[in-house]
Amino acid sequence: MKQWNYLQASFPPDDLDEASGILWSLGTNGIEEDPLRSGKLRIKAYFDPLQDLQSLHREFKTQCRQAGIPLFGCTLRVQVERDWFKKWRQQLQPFTIGRRFQIVPFDRENKIQGRLLGEGDRIQICIEPSMAFGAGTHETTQLCLEALERYLTPGSTCLDVGTGSGILAIAAAKLGARKVVGCDIDPIAVEIAALNGVQNGCGATVRWVLGELEKVRRFKPGYLVANLTVELIEQEFWKFEQRLKPGALLIVSGLLNHQARRVERLRRRSSLSLKRRLKKGEWTCLIYVRS
Ligand SMILES: C[S@@+](CC[C@H](N)C(=O)[O-])C[C@H]1O[C@@H](n2cnc3c(N)ncnc32)[C@H](O)[C@@H]1O
To answer: Is residue 129 lining ligand 1, measured as CB closer than 6 Å?
Structure first.
């Protein structure tokens, strides 16, 4: 029987975005929200059992303290698998993103494929909702997809750093990129991305690499997309810049609106200029062009 490990914490609902940002940066696979009668919000953030949960627990509490998020209880728990994940997968219906994409969830194990919406000219991306981030339901992913549909030109090349489910790399391939690389430090994500690549007929167009950007050698893409956290984007910013050839675009997402200025501060000292800023709710995506 499988077991799930999760961190359970309660805090004021206004702090949800910031607390979720911290949990995603710590590698959570999914967050359940449960409003309490007291007016507080209780969340359960699920983690891979292989992760060092005690350190994650400590780190979450430290980062919440630094961000001024009051925690009313924060514990690590173990739950023996009920059917929640299966049910969640089966509930997902196809949905559209931007002007060009339709995400079609499918369930490989039970051979369930979401019903198509009948919007003939949309590009369909089949994604199996899984433990890898990138089902297409999160705003940060949607902003990247909107940036790609707006700017990526057929025949170009694209590098997706932190590929998760592979959704952005697959999107780039389906928009006509001739060579795409998706990399991720999480072996499970890379495995799932590769399976999603097969399901979407990506063939040899997309290569999946386990590891950070450095693991992808001798590849200077026309587009580099990274949906990470502000801390990771700051850390990797200069490596991203070096990777880009003149005229190439850098698309960074995973930034809460107020965090965008931190990346902008770095960018002003770089060879990049701001091409566009996309926003969705609390989230900002920055699109830069290398001079
Ligand atoms: C927020 S998810 C983005 C997934 C997908 N690209 C999307 O937009 O939905 C971030 C992913 O980055 C990966 N990641 C974290 N740090 C990384 C690093 N330094 N290099 C490469 N991947 C990293 C995580 O394992 C996770 O799968």
So the answer is: no
Is residue 281 within 8 A of residue 139, CB to CB? The reply is yes
Residues comprising the chain, all counted: 291
Q: Is 41 in the pocket of ligand 1 (CB under 6 A)?
A: no
- On whether both 276 and 143 belong to a single domain, the answer is yes
Nearest to 202 by CA among 231, 182, 226: 182
Q: Is residue 200 part of a domain?
A: yes
Q: Is 109 helix (H, G, I), strand (E, B) or coil?
A: coil
Residue with tokens 């359970």, as numbered in its chain: 8
Beta-bridged to residue 289, according to DSSP, are: 249, 273
Structural domain of 171? 138-290
pTM recorded for the entire structure: 0.74
Residue ending a domain, choose from 82, 100, 117: 82
User: What does pLDDT average to in each consecutive run of 10 residues of the chain (291 residues)?
Assistant: 80 93 89 86 85 86 95 85 63 85 79 54 87 88 98 98 97 98 94 94 95 95 96 96 96 95 98 98 96 95
90 CA distance to ligand 1 middle (Å):
25
User: Do 41 and 34 form a contact (C-beta atoms < 8 A)?
Assistant: yes
Question: Is residue 90 situated within a structural domain?
Answer: no
How much distance in Å is there from the Cα of 184 to the middle of ligand 1? 6
